[in-house]
Write a structure and sequence with these properties.
Blueprint lengths: L11 H19 L3 H6 L10 H9 L7 H22 L1 H22 L9 H12 L10 H20 L6 H19 L2
Helix pairs in contact: 1-4, 3-5, 4-5, 4-6, 5-6, 5-8, 6-7, 6-8, 7-8
Length: 188
């Protein structure tokens, strides 16, 4: 008897999130960035506009182009299923939403002249959560320390030394959220 391989839908939230990001990136690129700027990029706007509040969450769906999307999607597809399998789909939704909200608010409040889009904060949250998978009470995994030093240290250095269009603060905030959420999820 030959066993047949079948494709399984193993991480529905992760797959749906990347698929939505793909569609939004396609629409953004097709419109020359107009759709991304209008609906999927967070920046300081009037607080009486419902779009200001919408963009606090939707900015993680928009990407500046295909390279930006592919870089984030690769990490999300690698790490998301591990988190989703271990902690459940609802927790992945929670991480995405809280990371979007906090990175959006930090950007609006502290960087009023800068627009932000992309799922990089979510990627860094996922990286840190994954590094905390082996956490036990009274212990700190060496992998967590190494990941924190390498990834977050690089972002801090890049933020200070390199002037580019990459929002290092969203990476740092995503990493902090990942550390807090990862600690809380794994201490149980």
């Amino acid at each position: 008897m030959k066993s047949r391989l079948k494709i399984t839908f193993n991480a529905p939230v992760t797959i749906a999130f990347v698929f939505i990001c793909f569609i939004v990136t396609f629409l953004g690129v097709s419109s020359g960035g107009a759709i991304t700027r209008a609906y999927f990029m967070v920046y300081r706007g009037p607080w009486n506009s419902p779009f200001t509040y919408l963009r606090l969450f939707t900015h993680v769906l928009g990407h500046s182009g295909w390279d930006h999307f592919i870089g984030n999607a690769a990490y999300i597809l690698l790490l998301g299923p591990l988190i989703e399998e271990r902690h459940g789909s609802r927790k992945v939704i929670y991480v995405i939403l809280i990371t979007a909200l906090v990175t959006g608010l930090v950007n609006i409040l502290f960087f009023p002249t800068t627009a932000l889009c992309g799922a990089s904060g979510v990627v860094f949250a996922f990286i840190i959560i994954t590094s905390l998978t082996g956490f036990r009470k009274g212990e700190i995994p060496l992998t967590f320390i190494l990941v924190a030093v390498i990834f977050l240290g690089q972002q801090i250095l890049d933020g200070v030394l390199i002037k580019d269009n990459i929002s290092n603060i969203s990476h740092i905030v995503g990493g902090i959220i990942g550390a807090i959420v990862g600690y809380r999820l794994n201490r149980r």
